[in-house]
Design goal:
With 167 residues, the chain is of the alpha/beta class. Helices cover 41% and strands 22% of the residues. It has helices at 10-22, 33-40, 59-68, 84-92, 105-119, 153-166, and strands spanning 2-6, 26-30, 47-50, 75-79, 97-100, 128-130, 133-136, 141-144, 147-148. The chain folds into two domains: 2-119, Response regulator (Rossmann fold); 128-166, no CATH class.
Length: 167
């Protein structure tokens, strides 16, 4: 799975990227809205974590432009703006979730799993799903329907790589 993190605070950007990498996500990052929008419009991400208050283009503008261009990648706004009006506006423009800073790491990960489950790219237990293929990290194996593929460690890593790149 591939995530884009757009955050102008370098230390928070590193923390969030490290968190997703520890969960086996491939991460890209940007510190400005313009750079974030450029990367996001490539439409290669499974998830975007996006601050609202960014130098250059704001997170709100990014969401509006992505949705106007039919880029439907799930977006979680991660921002210090905590007023109810801000949360409602963020969700109404097309964000899939809204988390205020400071945040609990466990909540960010839980909301990420929830958003990705709704999209259909991960299963209930964090499995990767692509068509009929279900990759189960706990078993280090893959299944087609309920039939185990009995992969070697190398085969598993290769399939995981291809599925993460293709999702």
């Amino acid at each position: 799975m591939r995530v884009l993190v757009v955050e102008d605070d370098p230390s928070l950007l590193k923390i969030v990227c490290d968190l997703f990498e520890s969960e086996s996500f491939l991460t890209d990052s940007a510190e400005t809205g313009d750079e974030g929008y450029y990367l996001a419009q490539q439409n290669i991400y499974d998830l975007i974590i996006l601050d609202i208050m960014l130098p250059g283009m704001s997170g709100v503008e990014i969401v509006k432009k992505l949705r106007a261009n039919a880029i439907l990648v799930p977006i979680i706004l991660l921002t210090a703006k905590d007023a109810v009006e801000d949360r409602v506006a963020g969700l109404d423009i097309g964000a899939d979730d809204y988390i205020t800073k400071p945040f609990a790491v466990s909540e960010l990960l839980a909301r990420t799993r929830a958003v990705l489950r709704r999209k259909g790219t991960i299963g209930q237990e964090g499995e990767l799903i692509y068509g009929l293929i279900r990759l189960v990290p706990a078993a280090k194996d893959a299944f087609i329907e309920d039939n185990a593929l009995n992969l070697t460690a190398t085969e598993y890593k290769l399939l995981e790589f291809f599925l993460c790149d293709g999702l």
